[in-house]
Structure to design on (256 residues):
């Protein structure tokens, strides 16, 4: 058994939505460190371009700004990517949104925005990229990694109804997509992160010591924690993990 290249991503291409900040950026840096050519996408072009420039010190990183909340936007991102590459080895569906409001006042706009981006987009973006994922699945398996959340598995006190529902749906969608796409040499899996510092999780970012008190590991997640999980699933090491959601939360889910 030769494990020296088990976690290598050398020679592979990866696209990460929501890759300009937070968990997406952490994964992008990890993939670059493992030798992948990385493309990041985000809705805000200036932020996406700046992040790509900064990440380029670690390897080949290109900015592809796009709004993937619609099917038209997803197809536009595929067309933009096709200007650079003929095939795609790794797709990370990380772009997401959250909305919190009391039950009696929860708005339809907060439902539609979150569910469209968190649940609809991973399906239709993967569908649009499937021909390129199939093309890459020759000498190795292609990978799709959906970024879910522990909020899709267990319940917290926050009234984020559409977020929790969308992440639970994404975990189940991952299983269904995995069953279908395995026949094409495409492995679909998910990661369910806990508390990582980001603009979406401002508590973990701004009150990490307080949040850490609720986590058995006694700290919030570090970039290496989420990058390591994504590298595992994206590399040869994760080839036999199909349809599963890897929980990366320092035990937080079990302490609720």
């Amino acid at each position: 058994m030769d494990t020296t290249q088990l976690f290598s991503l050398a020679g592979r291409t990866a696209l990460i939505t929501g890759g300009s900040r937070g968990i997406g950026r952490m994964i992008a840096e990890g993939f670059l460190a493992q030798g992948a050519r990385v493309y990041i996408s985000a809705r805000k072009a200036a932020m996406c371009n700046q992040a790509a420039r900064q990440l380029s010190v670690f390897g080949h990183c290109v900015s592809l700004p796009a709004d993937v909340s619609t099917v038209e936007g997803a197809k536009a991102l595929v067309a933009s990517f096709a200007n650079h590459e003929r095939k795609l080895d790794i797709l990370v569906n990380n772009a997401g949104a959250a909305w919190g409001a009391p039950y009696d006042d929860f708005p339809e706009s907060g439902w539609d925005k979150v569910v469209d981006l968190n649940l609809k987009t991973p399906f239709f973006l993967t569908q649009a990229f499937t021909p390129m994922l199939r093309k890459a699945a020759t000498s190795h398996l292609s990978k799709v990694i959906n970024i879910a959340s522990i909020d899709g598995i267990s319940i917290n006190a926050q009234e984020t109804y559409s977020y929790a529902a969308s992440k639970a749906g994404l975990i189940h969608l991952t299983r269904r997509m995995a069953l279908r796409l395995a026949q094409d040499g495409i492995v679909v899996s998910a990661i369910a992160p806990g508390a990582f510092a980001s603009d979406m999780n401002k508590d973990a970012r701004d009150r990490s010591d307080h949040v850490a008190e609720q986590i058995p590991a006694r700290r919030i997640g570090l970039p290496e924690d989420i990058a390591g999980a994504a590298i595992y699933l994206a590399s040869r090491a994760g080839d036999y993990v199909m349809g599963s959601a890897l929980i990366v939360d320092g035990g937080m889910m079990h302490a609720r």
Notes: Residues 38 and 61 are 5 Å apart (CA to CA). The two ends are 40 Å apart (CA to CA). Strands lie at 13-17, 37-41, 61-63, 90-93, 142-147, 186-193, 245-248. The mean pLDDT is 95.
